[in-house]
Amino acid sequence: MAAMLQPQIILLKEGTDTSQGKAQLVSNINACTAVADVVRTTLGPRGMDKLIHDDKGTVTISNDGATIMKLLDIVHPAAKILVDIAKSQDSEVGDGTTTVVLLAAEFLKEAKPFVEDGVHPQNLIRSYRTACYLAIEKIKELAISIEGKSLEEKKSLLAKCAATTLSSKLIGGEKEFFAQMVVDAVIAIGNDDRLNMIGIKKVPGGNMRDSFLVNGVAFKKTFSYAGFEQQPKKFLNPKILLLNIELELKSEKENAEIRLSDPSQYQSIVDAEWNIIYEKLDKCVQSGAKVVLSRLAIGDLATQYFADRDIFCAGRVAEEDLLRVAAASGGTVQTTVNNIIDEVLGTCEIFEEKQVGNERFNIFSGCPSGRTATIVLRGGADQFIEEAERSLHDAIMIVRRALKNSTVVAGGGAIDMEISRYLRQHARTIAGKSQLFINSYAKALEVIPRQLCDNAGFDATDVLNKLRQKHALPSGEGAPFGVDINTGGIADSFANFVWEPAVVKINAINAATEAACLVLSVDETVKNPKSESAQGSCCKCYGW
Ligand code: ADP
Ligand code: MG
């Protein structure tokens, strides 16, 4: 009875919400599984898309794990980790974002019965880490290098990787067409690391197949003044002048206060203003440039002046486009028109202004340094083009990764099945509980082929059993077998060119294991009540 009389110890502020122990862990795992259930159906070539709309009326249709996770606005603290790994997978390798979420959730799901049975999470974490290490070593061993091949061969291999990425997207129907385009674009920019050197321009209308690649830069015609119509719209090998200055008649009185004692002096000021602009324009013309672009406005006077001298001009060009023209044409953006030397002028084989759908486009092609490429995307609805752009982004990232790391593995769940088999086999050599945990990890990897089947309406159990049997062949010839998305059976993914860069899988397995371990290592969450100290009052005192 004495215990009841002891004063209660209050540690945290009133209103603090804590939950801890096994129950907390299980609830975190449940939350992660719920999140994975949202993206589950989007995996693979037969995956479904999600339509997400917010209260502002923005509608996004997407198949991309990272995009969906970002838009979901998840508030659960543990489940947020999954959003983070999807994002990091997106920025690190660009593809495999659904895969990473599914894997992490599956690792946790497999761990749940053990946690409920009282296994200490640290034991699970240790085994998961070992399994992850083994899996990655195995992927590296199985990966096939595309190094040392000729450019043509490399291009066709890369196109296959891009096609695999695109096959799960809305534009999957035209995957060969776009895969080729993406590979050409990536090869065009060479070793340049800046992704924005590949521009994607969206022009609603027309057919997907009307999309095209410009080996150079293309951008929408900028706002233009009267006189523009008289300018020539096509040049061969023009010199290009890039500016970051305004070519407008400026009222100098806006910038400075001028006091006049004699009204006749006013004319001299107006004249000076005209002289300033004419001098600038003269210098542009003298430079020999046939195309003048500026990031800032080019006014009506300048437009007419250039038109009279058969020069093309465009003002208010977006900075990104101007920089890409600079990189492609070999020119340098100038902030003054004084002393324009030949070296700062760029050039290209053909410059022309063309009609694309309802828009006019300025197109610079055949650029000497060729470090840029632009994909002009066509298609019906806005949401469609937006999703097409996201899909191309994935494909571009994949091709770049494959080009850099130059190893590929078989997709369609083949690599996942093979690692799963390997880990199960390895687990048998381990004594102790760890055997069970590594086995569970191996089982979790099967989620990828299983989900590919489920999403395509195949009998997953049937296909998985066939796959297990094939992969268990002692000769190892079954290793590249994965789900055949066309027939509902199994097929050699490698022979069918369902290829993925090894780095996608390595990164996905690494990130998913890390996330699962992170969630497993949390056994208590504390939610602080709204900080009251912000209002100047200290915590409530209960007479201590
Ligand atoms: P993620 O966001 O993870 O990239 P995707 O929806 O792009 O998800 O699906 C990728 C999965 O689909 C990979 O496991 C890949 O191997 C598989 N896949 C892609 N194309 C095919 C195909 N033609 N046949 C079988 N599997 C495929
Ligand atoms: Mg993908």
Query: Could you give the count of β-strands?
Result: 20
Give average pLDDT, whole number.
86
Describe the main β-sheet briefly.
4 strands, antiparallel
Task: Tell me the helix content.
Answer: 40-55%
Beta-strand content estimate: 15-25%
- Indicate the overall shape: elongated
Question: What is the CA-CA span between the terminal residues?
Answer: 23 Å
Q: What is the SS-derived class?
A: alpha+beta
Q: Largest beta sheet: what is the strand line-up?
A: 7-14-13-8
How many helices? The count is 17
- Tell me the radius of gyration: 31 Å
* Bound chemical compounds: adenosine-5'-diphosphate, magnesium ion
Low-confidence stretches: 534-544
Structure description:
The protein has 544 residues and is an alpha+beta fold. The protein contains 17 helices and 20 strands. The protein has helices at residues 2-5, 21-40, 65-72, 80-92, 97-116, 121-142, 151-166, 175-189, 265-286, 300-308, 319-329, 382-405, 414-427, 434-445, 447-456, 460-471, 502-520; strands at 17-20, 50-53, 59-62, 144-145, 198-204, 212-214, 216-220, 234-236, 239-243, 291-294, 312-314, 346-347, 350-356, 359-365, 373-379, 407-410, 481-483, 490-492, 499-501, 524-527. The strands form 7 sheets. Strands 7-14-13-8 form a 4-stranded antiparallel beta sheet. The protein has a 4-stranded mixed beta sheet with strand order 11-10-9-12, sandwiched between helices. A hairpin with a 6-residue loop joins strand 17 and strand 18. The protein is elongated, with a radius of gyration of 31 Å. It starts with a helix and ends in a 17-residue tail after the last strand. Mean pLDDT is 86; it is low at 534-544. The protein binds adenosine-5'-diphosphate and magnesium ion.
